[in-house]
Design brief:
This protein is α+β, with helices and mostly antiparallel strands. The chain is built from 3 helices and 3 strands; from the N terminus they run H-E-E-E-H-H. The chain is globular, with a radius of gyration of 14 Å. The relative contact order is 0.15.
Length: 110
């Protein structure tokens, strides 16, 4: 999980954030805060943390949750090339509770 800010789910309700973090820990999800995705390759993500550029390989699924207003350009660009499930603010700007629900449902769909 690559997060631009210093905190994951900062806008979520406290109980939702708690259980989210517990699930991430239980599933050994690595969390990179204060980091920015620079490039997506077929099986890897290149991200920047401070002045270091890093690569995470062996990636088979990418979920992108960015922005504060819908931007469907990437989903439209990938249409027909990859399965795309649009969730969270990319679908419609709302609070994190809805984004969590949509992300949860998207995870079961793939």
């Amino acid at each position: 999980l690559i997060e631009m800010t210093g905190t994951v789910a900062a806008d979520a309700f406290a109980n939702v954030a708690y259980w989210l973090m517990e699930d991430l820990k239980k599933n050994n999800v690595k969390i990179y805060t204060e980091s920015t995705v620079k490039m997506i390759e077929p099986d890897a993500v290149i991200y920047e943390h401070g002045d270091q550029v890093n690569r995470i390989g062996g990636v088979d699924t990418i979920v992108i949750a960015v922005g504060s207003r819908p931007n469907k350009a990437l989903a439209e660009e990938l249409a027909g090339k990859a399965e795309v499930i649009t969730v969270g603010d990319a679908k419609s700007v709302r609070d994190a509770l809805w984004a969590n629900l949509e992300g949860y449902r998207a995870g079961f769909a793939i």
